[in-house]
Amino acid sequence: MLRQTLTYAILIGIACIMALSLSINTSLALTGDEILKKVDQTANAPKDRVATLKMVLVDKNGEKKERE
User: Fold this and answer.
1) Averaged pLDDT in 10-residue chunks for the chain of 68 residues
2) What is the pTM of this model?
């Protein structure tokens, strides 16, 4: 009797843990609306940012040319 009760308790505990883990995973997933909001934020990001890059080209003789 005690063994059967313990077995049921373990099975119920495992079922609860599995149900909880499934609900946590679905709550972390992005919805379609959230994805579209992130795309809009990226597409409409500030256009006043500037980046300057420097490229150094080295030929097979070791001569370097810099481009900005």
Assistant:
1) 81 81 67 85 77 90 92
2) 0.35
